[in-house]
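ESCALATION

Customer reports they have been waiting on this structure for their group meeting. Please prioritize. Original submission:
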Amino acid sequence: MAVNHPAANVSAVKASHRPLILTACMLSMFMAAVEVTIVATAMPTIIGDLGGFSLLGWVFAVYLLTQAITVPIYGRLADLYGCRKIFFIGTTLFLLGSVLCGFASSLSWMIAFRALQGLGAGAITPIATTLIANVYGPQERAKAQGYLSSVWGVSAIVGPLMGAFIVSHFPWAVVFWVNVPIGLVAMAILVKYLPPDIKRQQHKLDLAGTGYLTLSVAALLLALLQAEELGYWALALTGLAILSGLLLVRQERKTPEPLFPLVLWESKVVIAGNIGGLIIGATMMGISAFLPTYVQGVLGGTPLQAGTTLALMSVGWPLASMLSSRLMQATSYRATAVIGGLLLVGGSLALLLLSPTSGLWFARLAAFSIGAGMGLCNTTFIVSVQNSVEPAIRGIATASTLFTRMLGSAIGTALLGATLNLNLQARLPQVNDPVQQLMDKATRSTMESGYLAALTDSVAASLHWVFVISAVISVLAIAAGLLIPSGDRPRTEPQRES
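Update from on-call: job pushed to the front of the queue and completed.
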């Protein structure tokens, strides 16, 4: 019954308090979203102080791993025990991990504290997104989720700048501690303006399903993120992931309160949202990971030129996110998602026009178009999923969409990285790390012109195939949009005030 669900209480928030709650959710989302980029900028300084360069990759991998594993778990916990309570638990873990990272005496301790940060971060994004869905009605929800989604684009720009400023003027620990006041302000606003969760019937978390999910996701992500280091062990981990996934499906079918309620997978909208999340995550990696490499390695651009080119994706994302509300209401979820998919495809095709002699404008146009497509698709899939399910499962429905986006990013990174490596091995079998040679200005300047041209052409051709695969993936975003029933759009639902 609705009275037993926290959304029934949250929907009674005063209209004047809703913008404050939205602000708190945006602050918390910014805190979690900016974490990867701000730390990446500071890592050279941190490595110089703590050492342990061989462990560098794990500083990022363990954060993403623990975050991805816990996203669906927190989403279900929010449904069972209330968004407010679970949000505060997750944010507290994240802030505790942030404080401890600043005190890390070695990179090993840093990795342990980053794992704690990731355990908390897994709650922030899905529950903040669910809170907004509970506080705003379906029509207002699209606009509010657009603002929330835009935080990802803004953080991608602000994070590196903030990280560079901090390590230039303060101890590197401040990179982690800057999260603390942001998180405390967000929590203080929610304590004051978000009503406590209503007491409900006793629930029981599906512990067996949670265990199978954790094992499956951990094994799959480790296989994808550490494939080169693991070698054939990556295949064993993939097999373990598949086996655990099958056991999870069997468990979900027989348990009375499954981690993933089966009703989720009876909805075309939810299926479309999850497929869309997977595609968005994979497509995003085609530009985020490899466009800067093309700009610096093939076009001979500076790190600043590569950064400003990629920043255009971060500009297109929030602009499109904020426009998505009007577009959804004027047309439909399906039309908005398809338009976003067309922008993704257009940007991906623009990447195919890049050549060693082309300027930066094709790259910048592609970045902006893909960013705009991300903004439209991401917001549309989330809002359509939230509006299509009952409040009692809104948390896990939202979390599943966000989870598949994270999983898509990992799959996209592995697939596109393998495409690049295979092409480089085929074209330049005797050359050691050709991309790094091109990106190193000192090494590049000493190359004989003929060798430089041949090396550039080979790397460009290899990256071209990366962009081809990325373009093929982006086409699937249109297919995901077409899965949404035609005519569905945000419906009118009056808001109640307490």
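Sent to customer with the following note: The longest helix spans residues 394-427.
Escalation resolved.
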